[in-house]
Amino acid sequence: MANNIQGTFVSQKINKIRWRPDPFNNSHSFISCSWDDERNSVKLWDFRENDESEVYPFIITEMEHEGDITEAMFLSTDHFVCSSSLGSVGLFKISYSRSSEITIEPGTQWKNIHKFPFHYSPCTSITNYDQDIVSVGEDGRINLLTLSSESVVRSYENADSCSLKCVLFLKHNEILTSNLRGQMKIWDLRSKSEEPSSMFVLSGDMIAPTCLTYHPTQRHLVVAGDEEGSITIWDLRQNTFPVNLLKAHNESVTEIKFHPDYPDHLFSASMAGEVWHWSIKSKSTSTLMMAPTEKDDSNVWFASDGFKNKLEVYSLMDRLHKPINTFDVNQRKMICGCDNEAIYLINDIKLY
Q: Does pLDDT of 115 surpass 80?
């Protein structure tokens, strides 16, 4: 393994991993969320250096979690939310006692908000916009939650006839969902109607999206990873057809993200045990250098002609024999969680 990659065995399959936000944008602690264990947990970690100058993670505190954790996201430095395979969503807080002991404390718990007639339904995905949270599940239901209420604010009980896989806030009043058949739907949360405002498909072959993300500065640019390993890019201002389709991994894409500060860089992980870095070639127009008055057409991600020739793709570490379920990026550091019960820290990612 390369010198800039360090792996640590943690005795749990990791389904989600997230850097803890830092006011100086230099995160050094993170949470890991497990799945497929008799007792799942959320753990808060930090890094320390040993005598051989190797950096490795150590546990600060942990909390048991009921059910597999299907998604996790920070709302602030000390608050985060998790969704559960038992159909629930929970708010959690990183707390400090007078004796400087750090613990993870449960806050509002929205239990059993996804369910079938006779048993629970897994909550498959959550997204947030400020104080608002939206959850979707295998029951085809959409729930709107807010941190100021312990009750569900609004529920679309029959939003979809099949399992919903992903959800993404596009605006404060608008969300995008994807289902098992590859249908993408945009919903206006202000509308009294329980019908989507628009709908389109990932492809003509009923391929299910597995993850969604948007461009950090242009939310109408949406990227989806799917179960066949492809990456699809849309301009939602004209959402009938994707602007680009990349045949990427050989197996399902598990997570996909733009770098939050360097939007010329996209990252993806897969069930095949790969984590890739997609970057725009230096000779191409950079979205970072784009003046505010320039048209979106100068954004290379929208390019239709020769788009693939404008990209460079790097494998950030050797292919593993188990799925890489999750990753998160902060500055030039990436953390990954894998089904081989290990966490990987990748340093010095090339961003310039």
A: yes
Q: Quick one: average pLDDT of 7-15?
A: 96
Locate 120 and state its tokens.
């629970």
- The CA distance from 49 to 37, in Å, is 29
Q: Which residue has the tokens 């007639």?
A: 117
pLDDT recorded at residue 300 = 80
How high is the pLDDT of residue 211?
Answer: 97
Cα 22 to Cα 28: distance, rounded to the nearest angstrom: 8
Residue 5, classified by CB atoms within 10 Å of its CB into exposed (0-12), middle (13-18) or buried (19+), is: middle
- Please give the pLDDT value at position 3: 61
pTM, rounded to two decimals = 0.92
Rounded-to-integer distance, Cα 14 and Cα 69, Å: 9
C-alpha closest to that of 207 among 225, 227, 224, 223: 227
What confidence tier does 2 reach under pLDDT thresholds 50, 70, 90? Answer: low
234: Cα separation from own chain's centroid: 18
* Residue range 200-226: mean pLDDT, rounded: 90
CA distance 268 to 96: 35
Residues 6+ apart with CB under 8 A from 192: none
pLDDT digits (tens, 9 = 90+) for 193-206: 999 999 998 876 78
Length in residues, the chain: 352
List CB contacts of 62: < 8 A, sequence separation 6 or more: 41, 42, 43, 44, 104
CATH class of 206-319: mainly beta
